[in-house]
Amino acid sequence: MACFETRPSLRLEARTTFAVAIALTLAAPATAQTAFDQPPPLSIAVNAGAASDYSFRGVDQTSGGMEGFGGLDLSRGQVYVGTWASNVDLKRFGDTRASAEIDAYGGWRPSLFGYDLDLGAIAYTFVDPAKREDYVEAYAKASRAIGPVSATLSIYASPQYPRAAGAGAYIEGKATYALTRKFTLSATVGDQYQAHALGPAPCPPTAAGCAGSYGDLSYVDWSLGGAYALTDQVGLDLRYTDTDAHGLGAPYHGRVVISARANFP
Fold it and tell me: Taking 80 as the threshold, does the pLDDT of residue 238 lie above it?
């Protein structure tokens, strides 16, 4: 009697084990598929800071005054959008009304053959400008890091730069060397081209980087400096920036810029 009671129990246990195994096998692909289909989480980052001068591609945007800036970035996986704002003072370019710059941008950051790419577009808009200052650029960037050294090549292009500047492009190379976990050195070299030069006055034919009165403009800018991370969120940057177009006026002259920036999270 005991033997006949044991066999059904064993058969029931075997059937139960077999059923559980089948259930787990069928559930595994479904679980994996669910995890695969789940979109990456939305990331939000905020930044804010101040600088002794707003230097954009080697050109002074605040007439030698202080800069305050801030931005917001949203990203999901490789796709991102963001906005950034700063005060400006463009009176040296003949615009006595523009008081702020507000940018909006978006793009895609894939990786290919060991390079980090960044493909996108950015719109530069200005608050209450006296002249047409707004414009849009498309950009493509490629970066790679090898040990403590990283390098980035960036290309920007626009069909219409501010006012009557016409079409143009900007190419920049940047190299960074991490001396320690907190201290890095960096250098940039850029070449700006636009169909017509814009300066504080009609461009004199003899001015460096100018091909005639409001002729085409091609100038080189460069910077050299270092950055120090006070914390994981707050950092300082000190650098010298200059151009080879001093003949276009004070905004193109060299200057030392110190800035502080905080990033959250």
Answer: yes
